[in-house]
Amino acid sequence: MRTKPDRIISLVLLVFAVVYLALSYRLPAFPYAVIDSDVLPKGLGYLLIILAIVLFLQAKDDTDADKERRYVKKEDLIILLSVLAALLIYIFLLEPVGFLLSTILFLLVIPFVLGFKKKVTTVLVAFLFSGVMYYSFNYLLNITLPQGILPF
Which among 3, 4, 6, 15 is positioned nearest to 49, based on CA atoms? Predict the structure, then answer.
Protein backbone atom coordinates (compact mmCIF):
# COMPACT_ATOMS: atom_id res chain seq x y z
CA MET A 1 0.00 0.00 0.00
CA ARG A 2 1.29 3.42 -0.98
CA THR A 3 1.67 6.13 1.67
CA LYS A 4 -0.50 9.17 1.07
CA PRO A 5 1.36 12.53 1.07
CA ASP A 6 -1.20 14.12 3.39
CA ARG A 7 -0.50 11.48 6.01
CA ILE A 8 3.23 12.15 5.91
CA ILE A 9 2.62 15.88 6.26
CA SER A 10 0.17 15.31 9.11
CA LEU A 11 2.68 13.18 11.01
CA VAL A 12 5.37 15.83 10.62
CA LEU A 13 2.90 18.48 11.83
CA LEU A 14 1.90 16.27 14.75
CA VAL A 15 5.52 15.87 15.89
CA PHE A 16 6.06 19.63 15.51
CA ALA A 17 2.88 20.35 17.50
CA VAL A 18 3.86 18.02 20.33
CA VAL A 19 7.33 19.61 20.62
CA TYR A 20 5.79 23.10 20.42
CA LEU A 21 3.23 22.21 23.08
CA ALA A 22 5.90 20.74 25.37
CA LEU A 23 7.91 23.94 25.05
CA SER A 24 4.84 26.07 25.73
CA TYR A 25 4.35 24.26 29.03
CA ARG A 26 7.81 25.46 30.03
CA LEU A 27 6.81 29.15 29.85
CA PRO A 28 6.91 30.85 33.24
CA ALA A 29 3.64 31.57 35.01
CA PHE A 30 2.87 35.03 36.38
CA PRO A 31 1.07 35.12 39.74
CA TYR A 32 -1.25 38.09 39.12
CA ALA A 33 -2.26 37.47 35.50
CA VAL A 34 -5.83 36.45 34.80
CA ILE A 35 -4.93 35.13 31.38
CA ASP A 36 -1.31 34.06 31.46
CA SER A 37 1.24 34.32 28.66
CA ASP A 38 1.04 30.59 27.98
CA VAL A 39 -2.65 30.51 27.00
CA LEU A 40 -2.17 31.40 23.34
CA PRO A 41 0.81 29.08 22.70
CA LYS A 42 -0.95 26.16 24.40
CA GLY A 43 -4.16 26.81 22.49
CA LEU A 44 -2.30 26.95 19.20
CA GLY A 45 -0.44 23.74 20.04
CA TYR A 46 -3.65 21.85 20.79
CA LEU A 47 -5.30 23.29 17.67
CA LEU A 48 -2.38 22.13 15.53
CA ILE A 49 -2.61 18.63 17.03
CA ILE A 50 -6.34 18.47 16.25
CA LEU A 51 -5.83 19.72 12.69
CA ALA A 52 -2.97 17.27 12.10
CA ILE A 53 -5.21 14.39 13.20
CA VAL A 54 -8.02 15.61 10.92
CA LEU A 55 -5.57 15.83 8.01
CA PHE A 56 -4.36 12.30 8.72
CA LEU A 57 -7.91 10.92 8.75
CA GLN A 58 -8.99 12.77 5.59
CA ALA A 59 -5.94 11.85 3.53
CA LYS A 60 -6.61 10.82 -0.06
CA ASP A 61 -4.51 9.32 -2.82
CA ASP A 62 -2.64 11.65 -5.16
CA THR A 63 -4.00 12.06 -8.66
CA ASP A 64 -1.92 13.21 -11.60
CA ALA A 65 -3.55 16.64 -11.34
CA ASP A 66 -2.46 16.90 -7.70
CA LYS A 67 1.13 16.03 -8.60
CA GLU A 68 1.13 18.59 -11.41
CA ARG A 69 -0.33 21.28 -9.16
CA ARG A 70 2.45 20.73 -6.58
CA TYR A 71 5.18 21.38 -9.14
CA VAL A 72 6.98 24.64 -8.37
CA LYS A 73 8.61 26.59 -11.20
CA LYS A 74 12.25 27.60 -10.83
CA GLU A 75 11.35 31.32 -10.90
CA ASP A 76 8.84 30.87 -8.08
CA LEU A 77 11.38 28.92 -6.04
CA ILE A 78 13.92 31.73 -6.45
CA ILE A 79 11.33 34.27 -5.28
CA LEU A 80 10.42 32.09 -2.30
CA LEU A 81 14.05 31.66 -1.28
CA SER A 82 14.67 35.40 -1.71
CA VAL A 83 11.78 36.22 0.62
CA LEU A 84 13.08 33.66 3.12
CA ALA A 85 16.57 35.21 2.94
CA ALA A 86 15.12 38.72 3.41
CA LEU A 87 13.13 37.51 6.41
CA LEU A 88 16.20 35.94 8.01
CA ILE A 89 18.24 39.10 7.41
CA TYR A 90 15.40 41.15 8.95
CA ILE A 91 15.39 38.94 12.04
CA PHE A 92 19.18 39.20 12.30
CA LEU A 93 19.18 43.01 11.93
CA LEU A 94 16.20 43.68 14.20
CA GLU A 95 18.19 44.00 17.43
CA PRO A 96 21.41 45.74 16.28
CA VAL A 97 19.82 48.12 13.73
CA GLY A 98 16.50 48.57 15.49
CA PHE A 99 12.85 47.92 14.71
CA LEU A 100 12.20 51.11 12.79
CA LEU A 101 15.09 50.96 10.32
CA SER A 102 15.05 47.22 9.79
CA THR A 103 11.27 47.17 9.21
CA ILE A 104 11.48 50.04 6.74
CA LEU A 105 14.26 48.24 4.89
CA PHE A 106 12.33 44.95 4.91
CA LEU A 107 9.15 46.60 3.63
CA LEU A 108 11.12 48.29 0.85
CA VAL A 109 12.84 45.09 -0.29
CA ILE A 110 9.95 42.59 -0.22
CA PRO A 111 7.67 44.36 -2.75
CA PHE A 112 10.65 44.67 -5.09
CA VAL A 113 11.34 40.92 -4.81
CA LEU A 114 7.66 40.12 -5.40
CA GLY A 115 7.51 42.37 -8.47
CA PHE A 116 5.33 45.21 -7.13
CA LYS A 117 5.80 48.15 -9.51
CA LYS A 118 4.38 51.15 -7.59
CA LYS A 119 7.46 52.61 -5.93
CA VAL A 120 5.73 55.61 -4.32
CA THR A 121 3.15 53.36 -2.69
CA THR A 122 5.86 51.01 -1.48
CA VAL A 123 7.87 53.84 0.10
CA LEU A 124 4.78 55.38 1.72
CA VAL A 125 3.63 52.06 3.17
CA ALA A 126 7.11 51.19 4.43
CA PHE A 127 7.63 54.48 6.23
CA LEU A 128 4.07 55.04 7.47
CA PHE A 129 3.47 51.48 8.68
CA SER A 130 6.83 51.28 10.43
CA GLY A 131 6.43 54.70 12.01
CA VAL A 132 2.88 54.08 13.21
CA MET A 133 3.79 50.67 14.65
CA TYR A 134 6.89 52.03 16.39
CA TYR A 135 4.99 54.98 17.86
CA SER A 136 2.04 52.81 18.90
CA PHE A 137 4.15 50.25 20.70
CA ASN A 138 6.68 52.59 22.30
CA TYR A 139 4.48 55.51 23.30
CA LEU A 140 0.87 54.32 23.43
CA LEU A 141 1.31 50.75 24.70
CA ASN A 142 4.59 51.37 26.55
CA ILE A 143 6.14 48.29 24.98
CA THR A 144 9.74 48.97 24.08
CA LEU A 145 10.81 47.81 20.66
CA PRO A 146 14.50 47.42 19.74
CA GLN A 147 15.92 50.93 19.38
CA GLY A 148 19.10 49.99 17.54
CA ILE A 149 21.24 52.86 16.30
CA LEU A 150 18.51 55.51 16.54
CA PRO A 151 18.50 57.76 19.61
CA PHE A 152 14.71 57.56 20.14
Answer: 15
The radius of gyration computed from the CA coordinates of the chain, to the nearest angstrom, equals: 21
Tell me the pLDDT tens digit for each residue of 106-134: 999 999 999 999 999 999 999 999 999 99
Give the type of residue at 65.
Answer: A
Residue 9 to residues 5, 12, 21, 26, 71, Cα–Cα distance (Å): 6, 5, 18, 26, 17
C-alpha 130/C-alpha 132 separation (Å) is: 6
What CA–CA distance (Å, rounded) separates 49 from 42? 11
CB environment 32-56: b (16+ within 10 A), e (fewer): eeeeeebeeeeeebeebbeebeebb
pLDDT tens string 33-48: 777 888 899 999 999 9
pTM for this model (two decimals) = 0.66
